[in-house]
Each structure stands twice: as structure tokens, then as C-alpha cells.
Amino acid sequence: MDINIDGDIPKSRALWRCIKVAVMWMIWIERNNRFFEGNEEEKEWLWERIRFVASLWASNSKSFTHCGWNTLNLSGRL
Fold it and tell me: pTM for the whole thing?
């Protein structure tokens, strides 16, 4: 099931806010893994993690109270 958020400003803002923070969060985590652990993940894995985290966070926002995480899952859509 796709979510059409075109024209729904609160949902669009909430989703983009989650995406921006998820990108920063995962870059921070990846940086720490490379610097402290010497591990480097593949880009595909990093993008998949960003999609997962953004979907999870958005599904817990007030704007998406009637949508479950499975409905909002962004994996493969960004």
C-alpha cells in the first residue's frame, strides 16, 4: 500500500524532517564505526538503514497516527 502525501503539508513536513535527521544520524553512526571500530559498511546498506530509520520515526509521529510502520516503510521508495 502506497501513501500519497501530496498536498498533505503536515505529513510531508514530518516525513522530510525524519528523513533529514535519519541521514545525519546514520552518517554519524557510520563515522563512529569507521573511526573507532575500523568498520566500513556498503553504501546500499547505509541507504537501507536511512530508509528504515526514517520510516520508523515518521510512523511514530503525530502526523502518521493512523498509518502503521508497514504502510509507511520507505524501503525501496527513495
Answer: 0.72
